[in-house]
Amino acid sequence: MLEAIIEIIIKTAVIMAFPLGALPLIIHVERRGAAFIQKRVGPNRVGPFGLLQPLADVAKFMFKEEVHPSHVRPFFYSAAPLIALVVALLPLACIPIMGPFQFFDRTVYPEVFRSDMGIFFAFAASALGSYGILLAGWASNNKYTMLGALRACAQMVSYELSLSTAVVAMIFIFGTNDIHLMVDWQTGYWFGFIPKWGVFVQPVAAMLFLVGIFAESNRLPFDLAEGESEIVAGYHLEYSSMKFAIFFMAEYVHMIALSALFIIMFFGGYSVLPGLDLIPLSNPFILPLLQVTSLTIKIALMIWFFVWVRWTFPRFRYDQLMNLGWERLLPLGIVNLIITVLFVYFRNQ
Amino acid sequence: MAYDILLTIMTMVFALMVVFSKKTVVAAFSLLMTLLSIAMIYFQLGTVFLAAIQVLVNAGAIAILFVFVMMLINLEQFQNNRERSKSKLIISILTTLIILGVFSLIINNNIEVLSAVNISDNSMKTLFDKLFTEYYLPFEMATVLLLAALVACIVITGSEKGIKQEQEKLQENLNE
Amino acid sequence: MSSIYYYLAGFLFTLGLLGTIFKKDLISILLCLELMMGGVSLLIILFSRSTGLLDAQLLVFFMIIVSACEVAIGLSLIIALHRKKQTIYTDDIKIITE
To answer: In this complex, do B64 and A125 lie within 8 Å of one another by their Cβ atoms?
Structure first.
């Protein structure tokens, strides 16, 4: 009993420290990446290459005065940022950062919550993501925040559909809901050099999922929830100092969790990257280490992709967003699902 | 045991808040919390699949629909005028007592049967084998029902005549 | 020792029933209907524990689907009513009795 509790506490600490510790680095990459794409210099004063700039930002956020407007609904106004952060952290509980390994003659599963339908729970938790935004918009008692919250909510609910069709198609291909079995399916090579990743089996589903991630985490081609030119700053208009920072953190954590899910379904999860598997496994601890490294590299590449897209594409108009979601991506997802099901059916005959 | 009592109290408090809160938006968020606590009870009872579905469908979609509609029709103008009358109170207490009395009778008379717990194989595979073989007809009917509901919602709310009427009324209000 | 959940299910059902009867606005009535649905599905799962059959879980699964349809159609009816009459109170729409 005590052993199990200690194990869960360690797992929770690791899985929470992983994204929250990487946050300052991600914000730095975002700023420097923006500067790189726009041919600017970017933050480079604090520390070498400006690496300490995020720490300075955190210090600024902490010591800033907290403006608490008088027209808000106090309880929900304070609760909304926390709900957003907690809900964004929830899907990480089902995501394994390495394979099961032997630790003093007991098999340890690295995810906090182990179930044979882990992927379902991850998506169920991520479906709750719009509540923090909705509460913030409503509690701020302001027309702009309300519009931003309604936009975000409608957008997230619409794109969840095309995202789910992609997930169901991948579940049909893998034939399982268990994340470890999914990763096992994707380990190995075709013809000796192409890694057996899901993206080569289902490129359409990968595309749908990728667009869905951008819409779900309110990132730039779809960040209509905070369209500065129309609704000032959207749902977090009335928030300042640490509460605003918590919304910021929630957005990035949501992004990391969704990219981890994307990598599990389409890029082999924690399976070792081609090239890294040439290292001989002389010690039983080398394989988990390689797996964590591979997953980290993959997530880092995804984050760079997010930054790249953000500073390359202009923002969509709202009706374009809705048309894209309902009239293009959803029918495409359903057709893809039907073809996949027929393919799997005739393969199993 | 303590966990059971804690979950029960939590669910009861949120359920009471659904009925007795002054603002309807607060009631909707309490409903969300009630549904999430029911999902936790499902989890505690060992039906993991239902817990996931409850979170995914009930909490993730239905409660969002409620909040969304409330924000669309600007509920602030409708004050929740709750007039209290003695007859209502008496009827409520009587109904609660009768239903809980019937419940305690049923449970206490069948306590041996009901306290026996045989949880069979509960995994996703057995459940879905059953769903797609024995229950394939209800499953197909459910999909047709969902499609019908989708079409019905679009027809009811998306009619151009209704939208035009609303716009005219808004215009009249603005002119006044 | 989960018999306390039986009383919880009964309580949820009663609360939803009374709310459905006494509430004045349509959205609160729909919320209370959801409460009743929650109580009933909890009771089905509790009763199925003694038999150990999986059918109850599938029944509740279908119930959740039906309740999703019910809420969607109910809310769209409320929106249509609000467009036509600018009200959501049950007292304002008793055209049939007048």
So the answer is: no
C57: closest chain B residue by CA: B50
In this predicted model, what pLDDT tens digit does every residue of C24-78 receive, in sequence order?
Answer: 888 888 999 999 999 999 989 888 887 777 888 899 999 999 999 999 999 998 8
If you measure CA to CA, which chain B residue comes closest to A119?
Answer: B52
Residue appearing with tokens 């995804």: A302
Residues of B in contact with A125 (CB under 8 A): 55
For C29-72, what is the HEC assignment?
A: HHHHHHHHHHHHHHHHHHHHHHHCCCHHHHHHHHHHHHHHHHHH
Mutation site, B26, B72, B114, interface C, largest C CB count within 10 A: B114
Kindly report which listed range (A117-121, A211-215, B10-14, B50-54) carries the lowest average pLDDT score.
A117-121
Residue type, position B36, single letter: L
**3.90.850.10, 3.10.129.10, 1.10.3720.10, 1.10.287.3510: CATH of C4-97:** 1.10.287.3510
CA distances B101 to B98, B104, C3, C7, Å, are 5, 5, 14, 10
Alpha-carbon dihedral of residues C32, C36, C42, C45, nearest 10 degrees?
A: -140
HSE toward the beta carbon, residue A316, CA cutoff 13 A: 22
Supply B85's token pair. Answer: 């009358």
Q: Tell me the pairing of strands A189-190 and A107-108.
A: unpaired
pLDDT tens digits, B123-167: 778 888 888 898 999 999 999 999 999 899 888 887 777 677 777
Contacts of A145 (CB under 8 A, 6+ apart): A136, A137, A138, A234, A235, A236, A237, A238
Is-contact C17 B95, C-beta < 8 A? yes
Chains in contact with C, where contact requires at least 3 CB pairs less than 8 Å apart: B
Predicted structure pTM score: 0.87
Asked if C25 contacts B24 with a C-beta cutoff of 8 angstroms, the reply is yes
The verdict on A121 touching B (C-beta cutoff 8 Å) is yes
Q: Which residues, including other chains, have CB under 8 Å from residue A231's CB and lie 6 or more apart?
A: A144, A147, A148, A151
Q: Mean per-residue pLDDT for A240-245?
A: 83
Identity of residue A226: E
Residues of B with CB below 8 A from C4's CB?
A: 4-5, 8
- Sequence-distant (6+) residues with CB within 8 A of A101 are A107, A108, A110, A284, A285, A287, A288
CB A123 within 8 A of CB A172: no
* Strand stretches in A148-209, DSSP E: 189-190, 194-195
- Test B153 with C31 for CB contact under 8 angstroms: no
Q: What is the dihedral of CA A320, A322, A324, A325, to 10 degrees?
A: 160
